[in-house]
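To make the argument concrete, we let one protein speak, a sequence paired with a row of structure tokens, as a model reads it:
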Amino acid sequence: MSRFPGLISLQNVFFNEEGALEFLQDEGILPKEKECEACGGPTILLKPKLMFRCRKKNCRKGYAVRKGTFFANKCLPLDEILLLGYLWLLKTPVTTLIIQCGLSSATVDSYLGYFRQLVSDSSNEENLEIVDNRTVEENNETEVDKRKHGTKKDMDERQWELAWRRANKKNLWSAFLKALRDVPYT
């Protein structure tokens, strides 16, 4: 079984928006500081708004902390996204995610798709080589089941997820954080 940090040890991350922000900054996933994109001046972090504001009086432009990261254009608070990701890594059933997180089935489905896309984007051919024989067999089986489970794109993402999980089975949580840090977003 994968090594995971305990839920209690991460309670400040999963149940506290400011704790989640600090955790993501410490992990290098979100920036701690930023230069103003308009004037190059220093900015200040406004934690309640999750944005950087230029300190120059003649500029005062604001920039979202989430910009250019996995978290950009996501509506859920950072702590809820991390909790959902943690539970997804543990293969928590969808109905349990809906009940425990208090989210709609559409929201949970969307975020599970985002997580699959994230690990798919962070995967490479090495991950597939590690599981090559089993993946080929499963590809043959999933082609038959494609009508039940969605589009070819969905199936490809599920295959990449499977390969990613197998390649990182020693520590999925660290691999998930690495994917959040390394996958570029525009």
About this structure: Residues 70-182 form one domain. Residues 135-149 have pLDDT under 50 and may be disordered. Strands lie at 43-46, 51-54, 62-64. DSSP finds nine helices and three strands in the chain.
